[in-house]
Amino acid sequence: MALTKEIMGGSIFERSSSSKVLLNQSAFAGNKLRSNQLFVNPISLPLQRRRVHLIRKAGAVRGIPVAAISEDLVKAAAASALSAEKAVKFKVRAVLTVRKNIKEDFKEKIVNRLDAITDKIGRNVVLELISTEVDPRTKGPKKSKEAVLKDWSKKSNVKEERVHYTADFTVDSNFGVPGAITVTNKHQKEFFLETITIEGFASGPVHFHCNSWVQSNKDHPGKRIFFTNQPYLPSETPAGLRALREKELKDLRGDGKGERKLSDRIYDFDVYNDLGNPDKGSEFARPTLGGQQRPYPRRCRTGRSPTDTDMHAESRVEKPLPMYVPRDEQFEESKMDAFSAGRLRGLLHNLIPSLKATISAVNHDFNGFSDIDSLYSEGLLLNLGLQDGILKKLPLPRVVSRIQESSQGLLRYDIPKILSKDRFAWLRDDEFARQALAGVNPVTIEKLQVFPPVSKLDPEIYGPQESALKEEHIIGQLNGMTVRQALEENKLYIVDYHDIYLPFLDKINALDGRKAYATRTIFFLTPVGTLKPIAIELSLPQSGPSSRSKRVVTSPADATSNWVWQLAKAHVCSNDAGVHQLVNHWLRTHACIEPFILAAHRQLSAMHPIYKLLDPHMRYTLEINAQARQNLINADAVIESCFTPGRYCMEISAAAYKNFWRFDKESLPADLIRRGIAIPDPTQPHGLKLLIEDYPYATDGLLIWSAIENWVRTYVNHYYPNPSQIRNDIELQSWYSESVNVGHADLRQENWWPKLTNGDDLVHVLTTIIWLASAQHAALNFGQYPYGGYVPNRPPLMRRLIPEENDPEYENFLSDPQKYFLSALPSLLQATKYMAVVDTLSTHSPDEEYLGERQQPGIWSGDSEITEAFYEFSAEIRQIEKEIDKRNDDPSRRNRCGAGVLPYELLAPSSDPGVTCRGVPNSVSI
User: Fold this and answer.
1) Which are the catalytic amino acids?
2) Which listed residue, of 163, 207, 352, 564, carries a Cα 20 to 30 Å from 820's Cα?
3) 84-101: string of b/e by CB count within 10 Å (b at 16+)?
4) CB of 81 closer than 8 Å to CB of 879
């Protein structure tokens, strides 16, 4: 019996005479894990040392299916006791969890039925178990006999989201420890394999964390390889798994040739040469991003053929047809449902304003602020007075009428959060300034280093570098200080968009209905810790020696100057919206992360510990970036039609990558220091002293940054106790090298790239990537509708410049300043299209995975110490959330608490589904 127990292992705890953890087979009775039992690897450790870990882990693994121990194993154990020298055969059981689509179309139902029938006659799912050991006879890994998945046909009509299947393997008693499993799908249809659990080995249950589509053998001949959740550095790979490890990575890299099929799992690099469609006409042609002329990060290669009119441009796949990303990167069903619902909503919002513009002779500008308010109260349908007869003429009459009957709300916008506490907050100067610290784009403000500010652009091309700002513009706003005193006491700050916009202004202002300045805004830090805007500089390209290329607008003194000031602030917000979307959001978190993800799949085995660390932070990013190339950032799509730079949007993004982006400054501490907002101070908790103490993005962000850094440091030190292990890790070095030299090829020669020679280097690189993918993206993304859904607060484009006294429009401005202001904002069509898009982008899907969470939290790693460390990280994230809630109730923090002031929750880690203005997902997933 003792020998049997030793071979079988089990899953509940018994205390032996030596106070070690032993395992008991009785927990597996009935093929189900009892709710009060624990499922762990049988590592022999003192019970006292493991108790806390085991308690935390118990709740995380409930519901994981396990197989009953077969009687064959007991008989095998007995036979082994009688004849230890002779290998005996015994059976082990595999339980596979397959996730099914709840919604199936008619074709899918037919194929499923066909697979259920053919499964009975041998066209089934075949598994083979592979040992970590080498067979001395074959010189290859030890393998079990093939096993067939049971009950596929019987369970074909099961409507559950997850269906469990079993398979029984026969192995020798000298098989060793399982390290991999192969799966051959002989059905017609792919299936999503979530997990595999093998039960019956003396070493305890073996987990496979799969989360992958297994294609039909007819589409992808060969066997799919899955490795156990036990992590191995390349140098520590068991002999039986080395060849499989290399083969799996080789398959993922592909050969760089041909067009990719939607079912492929191949990761490769390419330039952004698919944003335009020159075959539709020259107005739809766009330059390639990536290369010496316009440096840019690389994107996922699709291999499509070139266009007919430009051999260097890749042909496009237009919606609703899908664009290629590796199969496992595509949205899962619940995510796709949420995303598609948003697209449908956007379609309706775009369609109806277009219809109104067609049938109405009235100018489709907003005639008053009440027109904007009615988008939230009445909805577009009622507001526009569309009758049933008109509805029936729409391209989608059934869809529209069905939605009209079921929910009028689908045609009505939710009230943006900016209006929730004070509907006039957007007009206030203090709110305008507060959003620079706690709004949707809090990463641009910097300390003013010199006054007046100086441009870095070439004066021979762009004119004098000096600003038009003078002391007389601001001296009266400094609470009795001189400008020099204000600079020395860190009281002056700036949001400077001069250099990024000025090179493009001639082209932008030549577009129909687009007018922009290159703006600079000066803020004064008040004694109570809030900011006050005191001057705005508006610059245009210098067209001649007497050109009025620079203009300064200061705080208003009367009604006329008040409207000029409001228009100036609107132009600043339009500049801000463009830089936010094109640079800080899209470039810095979406585009610049993609090369690291592609390289990770190509160079890091799924069993590599660093891959396991990064895995949740790569989820859905390739898919959402592909969706952006297809629907958002391409020629004449939403970004170009809704933002001031129009067709030059992505060229501005590329210029920012070339001139401003540096990976070594993307960490939060480095970014704060670069902007002069913080100075190094080892006496402070995060090694920094903030010059603006109540800076919600920075103060909350530093809590999360430190938590991520501590978790990553624990992880890295566990696997790399010696720096030489990092330098000699072939996969790790290949990943980082390819990320830089291929994924960011245009900047690969820059000397600011971090090295990867020791633990500190690796911790910094990994923490930066995880920060960008999670908290940084959340801070820049999920406030888009709450702040931008009310267009006057944050207009994405402007259509008029500010008139001066001798301009023809000045009289119109004086006679009806509100009408002029509204005519400068986006039109009804532009505004509603923009609102629909940022509404979708600000929405959390039901399957979102937030920072501190993981799929299958108890089995993602077979390393118990690391699993324990992760639960500690998760607990720290929950504690940070409580601290953020506490800060939002602190009246001394006036940038997040007060009458009509919104709390700052964009870095609060958790969220419900929907538009919540909070929540930090693990990855860039929307």
Assistant:
1) 585, 590, 777, 781, 926
2) 352
3) eeeebebbbbbbbbbbbe
4) no
